[in-house]
């Protein structure tokens, strides 16, 4: 028996490498193993945590602009250069058939195979949707909703309100005890622009109001709260929950009497997180898995039963929220009285969209999930990277502070969203962070048409991965790509400043982002619909944070602690010292 197995394995291995040597369009790449391909090198078997960008970037250094890997038996072609990616993702813009119609559908590449069917994501929502007309309808509704000026204005105000809540928690955290911290603090030195600045900060001296926080945890709770509130119209209390967790031994300052509310909301959030986890498992773990194993999918389903239950529980809860809100809207006599939260915008725009049919409750639920799953972690992680880089480069940080201070007389003033367009330098810094450290470093696609890419003809069904990280750090497109240099984006922004004085009307009419060679939000037909929204949220968060606090890394030599999972570069921990800028008491 053992002999037969060994013999079969040897025959299979010979056959496998024979087929491999005869593959169409051979490209450079690491040698795959039978059955698992290159997954052992990606750390796939270690629950995604170790799938590292590093390995992919090493492959890019070794094999160049286009190479291949295998995920089980699935061949994946990697694209690492702007022109190849651009041609691939934006081809749809130019193709017109004999009847003068755009052949948009031909370029409606998919992101995954049919595994996601189980969760209905293959025919609903946007990101994983396989049905062209349903995808187009939903994307249009989401796009219109996230660009509605009324919604944008409101989210900027809500972010400010919520930031006040965050500050209240920070105020109640015990300040640093100078003696205990002096020994392990290695704070970056001040710069010439520090002295110019009215903060009068000497970073090496501890002050009585210095606080040490893990900003990655706080900001994740902050974005979770703001997105959930915008979609459910209920407070989700995840900041409050986190506050109580870290104050567990401090009975005096801990929030009391609201444990039942916190527990209830915690359950809601954990079910939402389980739904998200399941979705990403489907997307990644099953790609390339041979059909034979997929037949045993039932085993997988039983094993992860709890996650499936949570997924549908969360779905049903959102459905109830939509129905209740619809009723409220229909009972509301004046549209202007309605709040412009995301749910109201989706329902309202869905009632009078360009396609002449109303959006169903279920469609709205899938869009809500899209808004939450795509929005929360992308924003919170990007904000952490911004904090990290500005701490690493204090001169840049103080220039941002100067720009922010020049726009407001009073740090407690509420600001409107169109004033954000005047923060050219801050915008350039955010873009540079998005370039050097993309939160979503890879874009995957499956061809639905025979296609010529990189000088080779590929068959329908071929999987591609576009390596945004490599593209953003490619020497042929960027000068000194390894340098963190916001100036590279400033030229465009200064030109914008010259064009005309901005007023609210102009700002609403103009797209927020300029066309520049940044691919962070993807490109072409399936690019991110929330670029403007993301920039507005990020800028608002930066203004709120920097006009009140100076921020310093706990360890100036700290490397970012990033784990790649759920398709994102996730910031695991970022310990910083925050110091209120306008208290001048030195200890
Ligand atoms: C810093 C923030 C963000 C980044 C870097 C980002 C990045 C991306 C990228 C790279 C893609 C894939 C593009 C592709 O495959 O070609 C994408 C798609 C998408 N994003 Fe974002 N995103 C961000 C924020 C958001 C937010 C706040 C939302 C919430 C509305 C959102 C909703 C979506 C959706 C629905 C898609 C799928 C679009 C489609 O398939 O047509 N994103 N995003």
UniProtKB/TrEMBL annotation:
Signal peptide: none annotated. CDD domains: cytochrome_P450 (cd00302). Keywords: Heme, Iron, Metal-binding, Monooxygenase, Oxidoreductase. Its cofactor is heme. One of its GO terms (molecular function) is monooxygenase activity. The keyword Cell membrane does not apply. Heme binds at residue 528. It comes from the Eukaryota. Belongs to the cytochrome P450 family. This is Cytochrome P450. It comes from Rhizophagus clarus.
